[in-house]
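chain below, 525 aa
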Amino acid sequence: MAGRAWKFGNDIDTDAIIPGRYLVINDPLELAAHLFEGVRPEMAEMVAQGDYVVAGENFGCGSSREHAPLALKGAGVKAVVAKSFARIFFRNSINTGLPLFICSQVDRIADGAEIEIDMIGGLIHNKSRAEHYKTTPLPDFLQEIVDAGGRVNYKVPVIPGDGIGPEIIAEGQKVLQAAADKYNFSLDWTEYSLGAEHYLKTGELVSEDTLKDLGRFPAIYLGAIGDPRVKPGILEKGVLLAMRFYFDQYVNLRPVKLLEGVWTPLKDKTPKDIDFMVVRENTEDFYIGIGSRARRGKSHADFEIKRTLYNIKFGLDIDTDSEEIGYQIGEVSKEGTKRVIKYAFDLASKRHNHVASVDKANVLSDIYGFWREVFLDVAKGYPQVKHDFNFVDAITMWFVKNPEWFDVVVAPNMFGDIITDLGAMIQGGLGLAPGANLNPEGTSMFEPIHGSAPKYRGLNKVNPIATIWSGALLLEHLGQPKAAADIVSAIERNLFEGRIKTYDLGGSSTTSGVGSEIARLVGLV
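prediction:
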């Protein structure tokens, strides 16, 4: 189809495509009426079905806004051609079935030129100049989305894991499918048998081939890992930490949110008081796996850390007259610290503009004093975001006394691990606590923060809500924020009504009963 080219320059942000004041609108046709209102208002009236938007570098930068591609599609824009696209705009466009093409010769296309795109062959015909330019062919998966009228099919690997893992994952899949049906996308699950059974049968934890295969996907859904038949630490390090490090999932995100209808052990605190996010650094600190034991006398040990960002080697000469010592080495890098703190500030910018940092710089000054220095350096780039420091022992006190003080909390790996379990308890317990291991540019993994609870395996009695909520985070990561929000609303409605709940919340309902009820409520909220 031939159409007119509407030409734009570099760095066209999403607020230029559709101003923020119209984000309350969800109808693509209504959004289209305000397309480029502040920069080219005549386009909303004059654009014809099958026209193209042509732009320079970094089209769709700025805020994460799924309304932008919706407005373009609603106006009849057939595709966008640019030298490059902002990553989040690219993802949101895929979710809505808006084709995007990268072309280095867009400068040859004038405003108003008549162009035609061979989407399969990857060729742009500029009829106004009788020229052809190469572009990236439309990937098969995106062609399927376009052919399906914008219905996205997400391929999601699922690892049920050990103990109660298969049961809670099944309920998560049930609820996510209900959200997919409501919002016109589909989920294609691929199961991977990792965990205790696989290890005991094969002696293998997770192979390089499996990791490479999982790396093809943006999001992994995980039930739980852990089994009493396997020595503690083997599965946790060999599967969980191996995947987190391999995929460089440097953010562990833990929402701490008290929902209506849930009891909290904090006297007089309500849902408006407990609603914050903990951003835990996920690849460094004392969890790098460097440590050992040494007996009396002299010895030597070599250790190596391999990360996407860097490689580090430690050589330790040990001389002790103690009978035996154990030691553990922690490290934080400038690169690793900076990126997770920046993620926290970006998140706070979308919430209530406050970041609280956690450290123990008064005692462990080398490692956490360095963390604090990097935090202050990042904070300079966010003058609108307030920030403060909390020693880890103090913040546990403030979580209990004044949880309403917090918006986004960012912490090194070990302290983040500790304070998020406290956060889980003040929001109602581990059965209600979701988690996400994020690489915003790669493969992320979503799981409840509780363990595999092997003594409850097969009894159909444990609480699946943490897993279901983790699934909501997965959908949000894939670019389906409305579906994710509806799942959380359905969870809250289920808890508030209190008819169908598991034993840990004072009820007698089954795991599958809770999952079915939340799936039903997704269609009603």
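DSSP finds 17 helices and 19 strands in the chain. Residues 16 and 36 are 6 Å apart (CA to CA).
thats it, cya
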